[in-house]
Amino acid sequence: MKINVRQKTLILGIETSCDETAAAVVENGTVIRSNAVASQIDIHRRFGGVVPEVASRHHVDQITVICEEAMDKSEVAWSDLDAIAVTQGPGLIGALLVGVNGAKALAYAHGLPLVPVHHITGHIYANRFVRELEFPLIALVVSGGHTELVHMSQHGSYEVIGTTRDDAAGEAFDKIARTLGLPYPGGPKIDRLAKKGKPVIDFPRAWLEEGSLDFSFSGLKSAVINYVHNEQQRGHDLNAADIAASFQASVSEVLVKKTLIAAERVHAKQILVAGGVSANSVVRTEMEQAARTRGIPLIIPPLKLCTDNAAMIAASGTIGFLKGTRADLSLNGKANLAIEDF
Amino acid sequence: MNVLAIDSSNLVMSVAVTTERKVLAELTTNSRKNHSERLMPAIAQMIEAAGLEAADIDRIAVAEGPGSYTGLRIGATIAKMLAWTLKKDLVGVSSLEVAAQNGRGFAGYIAPFFDARRGQVFTGLYEAKDGEIVSVAPDQLVMMDDWLPELRNLAEPVLFLSNDLDKWGELLSTQAYAELGDITRNVPRAAELARIGAKKEPVSDIHHFLPAYLRLAEAEAKWLAKQGR
Ligand SMILES: [Zn+2]
């Protein structure tokens, strides 16, 4: 792929794939000029998870507010922008449609090119705000919706070499949190609780067949739930902190080992970790330790760039823009979207 | 005043560009939905057909609902974005009021409605006064079985305008007071939306303009019911 070198590339990114309404302006794919996010966590907490119709309604309420905040803080004029980048998918379709149609209206109003972005590539490119990417690399994307190992041989080229066969890692976190009576969103709560406990319970690790880079968390999830039920039936007091720590240790060990196998297989020059679960303190420390031992540089974005945001969409959109990816005004959102098409 | 009117609230998608004196361009389809793919190209095409550019539009009128949630969101999002970023006026008009315009010549009441599944309809009651359509009863979500007895008591003919007469026409034609719309009067037109949108007060807060869903999200309704227990 050839990338045209320009003086400065300014992209407005828009992201509405789940429960975050976000817009950001990014310069050259590496410098955040603004990064506005309206989170709906408080709104969905009472439902115990994201309700798609509720999320979609809130996106309509926030979309222009957030775009205005992003444009104002960036001190960039519409005429300075090179393109509008928007998450096309994957995600909740009703939520995606707000961002996609909003982005199309802006692109039309200002005569700007429109660049569709795959949400996962956004998570990967959040790492470029930390350090320049070097190829080949392995990216582990772990969130409530995804658990994927992506091999990149160059900018804008994505090959999925491992994925979950059932639940996403973040989904397992949320379900175990519910079992332990912790409020939504469960991930950070488990992390905090686990710090008070020890990983003394031997929960299973799903390695799957020899050499597989795929993941599976449903067996672990059932094992934890069964353990809790058995303990309750025997009238034992639950040591929730130990359960949280042990569960977390199991998830983390599988994520870290498989990522390292993948990295060695492709002779990776870098390991990237992204997505909401990369905010988990155990995943972070274990990954850091393992990467250091093998001598492979590791990049993990700062916490606020791990969760959904639009700076990452603008960063990935910058690559798409430079390699000529364009959409016309008929662009539609797609709940399921293959990363290989980007 | 150049008005861009957008109605994507139901199966019908209609876009028009008008001035005070003329309909410059209008496109209406009543066959496929997929408004997410088709609405923005239709808007660009109508503005171009009118010989204008986006910046020449003074006001955007959008059918705010009721209707299909997704359709409403697509129309509202595009209308808000255009109005906000181009610094133009935004006007929301009831989708039922737009549909009722086709009954302007009718002597009696006008009951536009959209099927809302499980025996329900989104409907309202309007009548023509001095050539203008005025609301007589608020837009609402109601069981058709509860709505018809109310209309029967009005002792005046009622014109039913709907794109869903395939489903409801048989029942309605048994009602003595009922008159049913014909193929042209059943289809809401964005040019009518533009005409009434030009006269209404623009919204004061574009940022928080929302569709009139007339129904809570299911999870929200359940949650509220649980609180009341
Ligand atoms: Zn995400």
UniProtKB/TrEMBL annotation, chain A:
Its EC number is 2.3.1.234. It catalyses: L-threonylcarbamoyladenylate + adenosine(37) in tRNA = N(6)-L-threonylcarbamoyladenosine(37) in tRNA + AMP + H(+). Keywords: Acyltransferase, Cytoplasm, Iron, Metal-binding, Transferase, tRNA processing. Substrate binds at residues 141-145, 174, 187, 191, 280. It comes from the Bacteria. The keyword Metal-binding applies. Fe cation binds at residues 119, 123, 308. GO terms for molecular function: tRNA N(6)-L-threonylcarbamoyladenine synthase activity. Residues 32-314 form the Gcp-like domain. The keyword Metal-binding applies. Required for the formation of a threonylcarbamoyl group on adenosine at position 37 (t(6)A37) in tRNAs that read codons beginning with adenine. Is involved in the transfer of the threonylcarbamoyl moiety of threonylcarbamoyl-AMP (TC-AMP) to the N6 group of A37, together with TsaE and TsaB. TsaD likely plays a direct catalytic role in this reaction. This is tRNA N6-adenosine threonylcarbamoyltransferase. The lineage of its organism: Bacteria, Bacillati, Bacillota, Bacilli, Bacillales.
TrEMBL record, chain B:
The keyword Acyltransferase applies. Its EC number is 2.3.1.234. Residues 23-223 form the Gcp-like domain. It comes from the Bacteria. It is an enzyme of class 2 (transferase). InterPro entries: ATPase_NBD, Gcp-like_dom, T6A_TsaB. Keywords: Acyltransferase, Transferase. It holds the Pfam family TsaD. GO terms for molecular function: tRNA N(6)-L-threonylcarbamoyladenine synthase activity. PANTHER family: TRNA N6-ADENOSINE THREONYLCARBAMOYLTRANSFERASE (PTHR11735), TRNA THREONYLCARBAMOYLADENOSINE BIOSYNTHESIS PROTEIN TSAB (PTHR11735:SF11). This is tRNA (Adenosine(37)-N6)-threonylcarbamoyltransferase complex dimerization subunit type 1 TsaB.
